[in-house]
Design a protein that fits this description.
Layout (H helix, E strand, L loop, with lengths): L1 H19 L1 E6 L7 E2 L5 E2 L1 H13 L2 E6 L2 H10 L4 E5 L9 E17 L10 H11 L3 E4 L6 H9 L1 H4 L2 E4 L3 H8 L5 E5 H10 L6 E18 L4 H17 L1 H10 L2
Helix pairs in contact: 2-9, 2-10
Length: 255
């Protein structure tokens, strides 16, 4: 009986390790970071970075299309293994282990063309402009824009009252174009790409004020096996030495 149990345990552990060697990676349609090519395969800046990491580690991987908040929840439960473009926060560090940095991320304001020259050089300026026009700014749930922004949102109810939260980033595009909000905060790289290439972003521009600039990381679920995490960490170090990640970044950031 004891031998049977021992064999069963070994088989269970083996199957768990095998399952974790197929890395589940979160993607969504958000060019140039994530999008499907003409053959229906996922590609883009973050997709290529994640694929390079897994290949260097000798691990199989597959992409799972998930919305942002759902992906964070699945990362915590272990149903998802990796997310890209994540800022480190204390809350996330409870269930995520970090590899990186993946790249540098800038958060900017997206407005209509006629608002491009609004005098904004601080978060306080954003509040004054909001009061002046009687409209709020758009943000997305569960997104970290900067440490300063997060502290103000958490500790100043007056500040937070000038921001309107949505579950999906694209909702802010429509709301801005229809003048329901003044504009919204988003990452610079995909916004520059979309304004240039996507008709749905017609009439929008990036304002010169930068909300925050920080390093973003590969977020790896703490539910993954230590041996797999070690492989990914060692693979990252190798890719940095070979400048592989840098080459991929330049393909998409030199827009």
């Amino acid at each position: 009986m004891r031998k049977v149990l021992t064999v069963a345990v070994i088989l269970l552990l083996t199957s768990m390790l095998f399952a974790q060697s197929v890395i589940q990676i979160r993607v969504t349609h958000y060019p140039p970071q994530y999008y499907k090519d003409s053959k229906g395969n996922w590609t883009g800046l973050d997709v290529e970075l994640a694929a390079a990491l897994c290949k260097e580690a000798g691990l199989k991987y597959e992409f799972v299309h998930l919305p942002w908040s759902r992906a964070l929840s699945d990362l915590e439960s272990g149903n998802l293994h990796m997310m890209m473009n994540l800022s480190i926060t204390d809350e996330r560090s409870q269930f995520i282990q970090w590899i990186g940095p993946e790249r540098i991320n800038k958060m900017v304001i997206i407005v209509k063309k006629n608002n491009k020259r609004l005098k904004i050089s601080s978060l306080d300026d954003m509040i004054q402009i909001s009061k002046q026009f009687g409209k709020k700014w758009g943000i997305q749930a569960d997104v970290h824009y900067s440490d300063e922004f997060s502290k103000k949102m958490e500790n100043d109810s007056n500040f937070s009252s000038y921001f309107e939260e949505v579950s999906k980033a694209d909702l802010n595009v429509t709301k801005t174009q229809k003048d329901r909000i003044l504009g919204f905060i988003e990452e610079q790289v995909p916004m520059v790409y979309k304004i240039k290439n996507d008709p749905a972003f017609s009439g929008l521009v990036t304002h010169s004020f930068v909300i925050g600039e920080e390093k973003v990381y590969f977020g790896i679920s703490k539910k993954i096996s230590p041996s797999v995490f070690k492989k990914l960490k060692e693979a990252y170090d190798k890719l940095v030495r070979k400048k592989t990640l840098e080459k991929i970044q330049k393909k998409y950031t030199n827009l």
